[in-house]
């Protein structure tokens, strides 16, 4: 049952082209589109109103990781089909710090 369940999820992602849609997001167009920005700012306003600083920090981390994944540094990690080890180690270290911060936010303290 487990293998069939995961296969259905993978097939769903392939049929809907979700991965390609994330790769081709137009950041400038998204940031100037009121249909995207108004709900985003409403969410931020609601989180500030509820004083949910943990959720705001996690949202900032997610947006930061999304932004960093599109930088030239991330695009230059793979050279001639191989991962460049001297460039991947800082990314792994930064990822470990991010995971540590998220774990701390969820389990280390309370609001």
Structure in words:
Helix content is 79%, strand content 4%. It contains seven helices and two strands, in the order ααααααββα. It has a two-stranded antiparallel sheet. Helix 5 runs antiparallel to helix 7.
Report the β-strand fraction as a percent range: under 5%
Strand order of the largest sheet: 1-2
- Spatial separation of the terminal alpha carbons: 40 Å
Q: Enumerate how many helices there are, as a single number.
A: 7
Keywords, separated by commas or semicolons:
111 residues, mainly alpha, two-stranded antiparallel sheet, 79% helix
What's the topology here?
Blueprint lengths: L1 H15 L1 H6 L3 H6 L1 H16 L3 H17 L2 H4 L2 E2 L2 E2 L1 H24 L3
Antiparallel strand pairs: 1-2
Helix pairs in contact: 5-7
Quick recap:
It is built from seven helices and two strands, in the order H-H-H-H-H-H-E-E-H. By secondary structure, the chain is mainly alpha-helical.
